[in-house]
Amino acid sequence: MSILIDAWTIAWKDLSNELKTKQTIGMMVIFSSLVILVFSFAFDPTNNMVKAVIPGLVWLITIFSGILGLNRSFLSEHENDCLTGLRSAPIDPSSIYLGKVLANFIVVTVVQVISIPVLFILFDYRFLGAILWFMLIVIVGTFGFIIVGTFLAALAANAKNSEMLLPVLLLPLLSPLMIAAVQGTRIVLENQDISDAISWLQLMAAYDLLFLAACFFLFEFIMEGS
Amino acid sequence: MKELGNMLELKNMTKILGDKLILKNVSLVLNKGETLAVIGPNGAGKSTFFKCTVGLLQPTSGDIIIEGQKIQKNSAEIKRKIGFLGHESFLYNTLTPMENLKFYGKLFKVKNIDEKATRLLKEVGLHYFKEIPIRSFSRGMMQRLAIARVLLAEPDILMLDEPHTGLDQEAVALLNRIIKQKQTNGTSILIISHDFDQVHELADRVTILNKGRITETIQLTSDIDLPKMKDWYAEAVAQK
Amino acid sequence: MSKVSGIIDKLLFFTLVPSFFLALWLVFIWSPVERVMGAPQKIFYFHVGCAWVAFLAFIIVGYYSVRNLIKPNMNHHIAAGISAEIGVIFTTVTLLSGMIWGKSSWNTWWTWEPRLATTLILWFIYVAYLFVRKMEGSWENIARLSAVFGIIGCINVPIVFMAIRWWNTKLHPVVFGEGKDQSGGGIAPEMLLTLLFSIFTITVLYAFLMRKGIEIEKMRDTVRRAKNRAISRLAS
Ligand SMILES: Nc1ncnc2c1ncn2[C@@H]1O[C@H](COP(=O)(O)OP(=O)(O)O)[C@@H](O)[C@H]1O
Ligand SMILES: [Mg+2]
Asked: Which of B24, B221, C26, C101 has its CA 20 to 30 A from that of B76?
């Protein structure tokens, strides 16, 4: 129980700071808008093929902007060696992980709430799918992304070139999740048989649970300095 | 003021980093209410020794015993009992002093955080700056706040790694006053310092850590004055 | 100890060389030419062997990663690294031979055939793993971090395979089904024997490379230690 309280304390520290400065979220929103802009040059939005790329774009902007936030989340703890301060506090190391997952998830979700509608507007996309299923898929997929992303951000933060290292580590591990997420999103947006989307959703949920357990357990080893 | 009994005991602590033997069979006893200074040349392994004790590093071998109880690996208990002041401040640049203290207070499960934090900020002389993000603070102000952070949880043992570096005369006096006050409250203190004046003023006992070994220990009785202690140190370090 | 290991090295070497030539003979001369595909089908023997070793090498990385987390050990750390390096090579060969195979049989350089696509992801995971090992810091630190990544990567590989296969069956249910590369369908007994033998040979090659690689890395480590010792003696 105290693990969750500590996790929330850590998450709230990041979030309240974000509320004050709005820097990370602002940057992420701008960045995802720019990605959308660049893609609208690449794929003519008036073209019919837009429908085909929308599900992929939803996830592309999530991941690209998300990686910016993930990079920050542990690098900011390296200023003044705050991470060591956290490690010398009487808390379970896993609560640092949970706290960061929570904070990152909330930040990325806020960014999505802004950037996905922007995507639909700029691509002039009429949303006809089942909105609840769409949201569920986005939430489950984003959660998986954050679970693995936060973990690897902590790992990469040990390196000098962590900003470059994180995507290299993260993207291959995300591939199954992204396949499932994009396919699930496509099915929902195209109003196809929802049972197919459910099977993708199950795959994502399994991925989330498996990696949450693995990362939760292994995080201690990342924190253990030597 | 001395009470009997060991507060902290380290038995045969060894630490190998990479393929370097950094601590070799370090054993040491810290009595209740005692102040023990650890001195030694740069790179002797003093900071490593502290980190191993606090649990930030895993000693390769050896035991840590607090109040007669052997400490398991990574126990939260030892972290609650020991207040550790490292080289870095562990403070968040984006937060104000008050927010920093409150954050750590919550993690350390401190009761009456607001009240205590306000009192501590007054004590270290940062009361007027309590709403300013500490990014703009000078090294000395940071160090004061770092000290406040360590004191917040009211630990039984204080481990201070070079607390005097970067402080002005006034702050040094302030820090010494705080340490002395803690001493009268019966807190056991381990202190690393290169500043012999402060060591002589504060410590009850001085031990030398050189090249990963505890070589000599001396009780600072009233007949040992500052020059004498310096001579003793120079001799002990030169021997090896 | 070193005597035994010397014998193992010799044994491996003297198994490897004749098997290699035997495998080549089996592949190119003894085994029949496949009727539909013709000669390019011969790539298949190397392709499957390399793919098997690519995945085996990663399992070995995972195994040593777990051992390393339980108790840090320089030898396990080295073994995991060498296995990953060899794995990258075999993964690359698998990908290239797979592409050639695809070009000659389906007239396309790349298909999202689940096994091939998983191999591609595996390649990226391998490379990421090697990047983690290139980080700065004490070897214990790197051993721990890379072990953590190795384990996560290992967990990921079967999920990747599942996801891609699923994706495939939903995307192109007709074109790319099972049994595409003959392993499922009718395979002549000679072909099967040749395949098994080339898998055996490549596995022996892996074991041989692994032992040599570890030996070289240990030598490097010894040299590095000696150097450090010399420096610290000079300094004091
Ligand atoms: N992460 C590390 N990896 C390898 N060696 C280290 C590491 N950290 C410290 N050392 C070495 O350990 C020795 C002791 O360092 P330290 O405890 O910081 O000394 P000091 O007594 O000055 O505080 C030094 O020789 C240093 O080079
Ligand atoms: Mg030091």
From this structure: B24
B68 lines ligand 1 (CB under 6 A): no
CB contact under 8 A, C140 and B19: no
Nearest to B34 by CA among B178, B189, B177, B215: B189
CATH architecture of B6-93+152-239: 3-Layer(aba) Sandwich (3.40)
* Encoded tokens for C149: 């990544």
Render pLDDT for B27-61 as a digit per residue (tens, 0 to 9).
Answer: 989 988 889 999 988 888 999 999 998 888 888 88
Whether residue C144 and residue A221 make contact (CB cut-off 8 A), yes or no, is yes
**HSE value, Cβ hemisphere, 13 Å, CA-based, for B78:** 25
Contact A149, A156 (CB under 8 A): no
Encoded amino acid at C64, one letter: Y
Instruction: Quickly count: other Cβ atoms within 10 Å of residue B184's Cβ.
Output: 9
Crossing angle of the two packed helices C189-235 and C74-106, in degrees rounded to 10: 140
| pTM for this predicted structure | 0.92
CA distance C112 to chain A (A): 12
pLDDT of C172 over the 60 cut: no
Classify residue C233: in a domain, yes or no.
no
The percent of residues above 70 in pLDDT, for chain C, comes to 92
Is there a contact between B78 and B55 (Cβ–Cβ < 8 Å)? Answer: yes
For residue A115 the two structure tokens come to 């950037």
Q: Which domain holds residue C87?
A: 2-32+40-175+188-228
Tens digit of pLDDT for each residue in A190-201? 888 888 889 999
Cα–Cα nearest to C162, from A179, A144, A195: A179
